[in-house]
Design a protein that fits this description.
single chain; 489 residues; alpha/beta; TIM Barrel; Diaminopimelate Epimerase, Chain A, domain 1; eight-stranded parallel β-sheet
């Protein structure tokens, strides 16, 4: 393939001043030069002066749940239990199991209860996933369906994660596999070439069959949780290996560990207590963390370690330092400067989701207080310390949209809002670099994962204007492994 008349966007290294041509041979970029003549049998793609960047990655997705968003009852934006119950009562669906999501009850006057949900749902099983995905609000019929004892409040953390795979399997039976293909193609239209999937399943088992059934136009890095780690190791899987040799776009990623909870569920493990008491939840004790990270290191697996509260981040960095394991801290939402410096020294990646701050800015001061709010989403401090950033969405917690993530990192607010702690903002160049898998400006030798944009993403301006420009970005063409998977010219 020959891409004619493209402008290279400088992503961490200089780019030519004028238009060039880019030749792709197989899965690689082989030549970048002005005035290349088409070779015999070569497909020619006329870019008409558009801007070329390495393809975008979403470094943290729960793809199964994101693919189901169109079939779930949407409770996002509900400001009270009564409003949420009104939407639930009005919901109509032929499906036996009603699943919804997106509610955020941290500052509701009345908290969710099983009894309140029972009043509007009766005997139809209903499962509602919280906006941060760390809690499940089930009615009594759903508790019985999934073999759980009666209770008064939503399930949280380990108890919720234990039942979630069964909920997802029940949804799969209702939705079918085509939702995955639709979700991946929608991502391709945004310039996404790959996702790191942390769905609550043994992805190294389910994804080969899924790829065969619906196709996978994008790269997928799957993962394993500790419960399925023995099977992954028995299969000889290491980070970067192929679970199925016939699916070269599917690779093994990381061991995913959820060490603490979340802000909205008030379970993130924090050094200082929450209003009313308690420091959150440490799902995995330090000794168990060390054992898991040692096993991962010895087995050739990187580790993706979820840590949101500052106490959890400290324990996570301790575990990496003690064991010599490599990988990322996922979320890294509340951090102390000393742990940022230690992350940099250890070469760890901060896998962050800037769009989360759009939801959390209103509740963080109420839950964590002003001092901790000022240390939340410390993107600038991470970059200045030399920590590698990888941007993602944590979809369905936020939309699978890298342009939204970049805009949130640059402006730290919705359009028209004042930025929230702008001292932590990134530049557009930094946000783009953190969204392109570390590849840098397109050059010979790179894998041919590319996105052709209708506008220059690095136009100068005020952060709010830059963020608006990023949110409106249109992607003309997306190429994965040398093959066009989206062409919207």
């Amino acid at each position: 393939m020959l891409l004619r008349d493209v402008r290279l966007v400088p992503v961490g290294r200089p780019a030519p001043d004028g238009p060039v041509d880019v030749r792709v041979d197989g899965h690689r970029v082989v030549t970048v030069l002005a005035g290349l003549a088409p070779q015999r049998g070569e497909d020619v793609l006329d870019a008409a002066g558009r801007w070329l960047v390495p393809g975008l990655w979403d470094a943290h997705v729960h793809l199964g749940q994101w693919a189901r968003q169109g079939t779930r009852l949407d409770l996002a934006g509900t400001t009270s239990r009564g409003e949420a119950l009104h939407r639930i009562a009005a919901a109509s669906s032929r499906a036996d199991l009603l699943v919804g999501g997106g509610y955020r009850p941290a500052i509701w006057a009345e908290q969710p209860t099983v009894a309140a949900l029972d009043e509007v749902t009766g005997e139809r099983p209903v499962v509602l996933v919280s906006g941060d995905a760390h809690a499940g609000w089930l009615n009594s019929a759903a508790l019985r369906r999934f073999g759980l004892p009666s209770r008064t409040d939503p399930l949280t953390e380990a108890a919720w994660f234990a039942v979630l795979p069964a909920v997802l399997a029940a949804e799969d039976a209702q939705v079918g596999p085509g939702a995955y293909a639709a979700a991946l193609l929608a991502a391709a239209r945004l310039g996404v070439v790959g996702v790191c999937d942390f769905e609550f399943e043994p992805g190294f088992v389910s994804w080969p069959d899924r790829c065969a059934a619906v196709g996978a136009p994008l790269r997928v890095r799957t993962s394993t949780y500790p419960v399925d780690l023995p099977d992954a190791l028995s299969a000889g899987l290491r980070t970067g290996s192929l679970p199925d040799p016939d699916q070269p776009l599917l690779t093994m990623g990381s061991l995913k560990i959820i060490s603490d909870g979340s802000l909205n569920t008030r379970t993130a493990n924090c050094c200082e207590p929450y209003p009313g008491g308690g420091h959150g939840v440490q799902n995995v004790a330090p000794s168990e963390l060390a054992d898991l990270l040692t096993l991962a290191r010895n087995s050739g697996l990187e580790v993706a370690l979820h840590a949101i509260g500052d106490a959890a981040v400290e324990l996570a960095v301790d575990a990496f330092a003690t064991t010599g394991a490599t990988g990322s801290i996922e979320h890294a939402q509340l951090m102390r400067p000393a742990d940022i410096a230690r992350m940099a020294a250890l070469g760890l990646t901060a896998s962050v989701q800037p769009a989360h701050l759009l939801d959390d800015r209103a509740v963080t001061p109420a839950i964590w207080g002003a001092e901790r709010a000022a240390r939340s989403f410390p993107l600038r401090g991470l970059v200045d310390a030399g920590v590698r950033l990888a941007l993602g969405s944590d979809a369905p917690v936020a939309r699978l949209d890298p342009w939204l993530a970049m805009a949130a990192a640059v402006h730290r607010g919705e359009p028209g809002e004042a930025p929230w702690h702008p001292e932590h903002s990134l530049t557009a160049t930094e946000a783009l670099a953190a969204s392109t898998g570390g590849l840098g400006t397109v050059r010979p030798g790179q894998v041919a994962d590319l996105a052709l944009l209708d506008a220059d993403p690095l136009l100068p301006g005020e952060p709010s204007d830059t963020a608006g420009h990023l949110r409106a970005m249109q992607v003309a063409v997306t190429i994965v492994a040398g093959r066009v998977v989206h062409d919207g010219r």
